[in-house]
Design a protein that fits this description.
The chain is built from 7 helices and 8 strands, in the order ααβαββαααβαββββ. It is α/β, with parallel strands linked by helices. It is elongated and about 90 Å long. The termini are far apart.
Length: 239
Amino acid sequence: MTGKTITNTNLSKTYNPKMVEDRIYRLWEKSGYFNPDKLPIDKVKSQRSKVKSFCITVPPPNVTGTLHLGHALNATIQDILIRKKRMEGYRTLWLPGTDHAGIATQNVVEKELKKEGLTRHDLGKEKFLERIWQWKEKYGHIILDQFKKLGASMDWSRTRFTMDSGYQKAVKEAFIKYYEKGLIYRAERMINWCTRCHTSLSDLEVEYKPAESKLWFIKYSPQITVATTRPETMLGDTA
């Protein structure tokens, strides 16, 4: 009678997610599973034109910090869709990347400088930009690593950043195209102005806080009384 010898293996009494999940994810990456150009169908180029494609571009997270629960939920939903299409035979691409976030990233870097007793003016433009790029490199890598910890099947060979030269070129071309079509235009609008940064802010970057103030009653005539919290605007009233 012959048979195979079974070697005793000491199994952990508790599940070790880091050990198990990291090992599985490395196997996925090594197989090229996430890259549509390395899927089995691409070994037969004559069949490629017959296969449908499916692509999702991840909404690039801001490099202002790390991912939160909302990112995890969004990534999970996208991963489900990508994996479903991949199993259905589609050439699938899930494109990863991060967003520079503009003034928002500048603000978080300035907060870090404040802890050191410095301002961006103390550093000067070039040194301040260096600090911003250092921040981007640090948190950009953290964000991508967090996606990997979530098991996201993104094609890391195509990772993008919103200030990549090719990306910026595409944005400029799109801007000019929409401007020429009249979809982008210049006009007067009430804006949010930051007195510290000396720049305009989008509505999404403004945080509203409740505050107590006085309610003024202004009498324009014996018959007309107007209530306002901004009496200084009465000088410009034309109605």
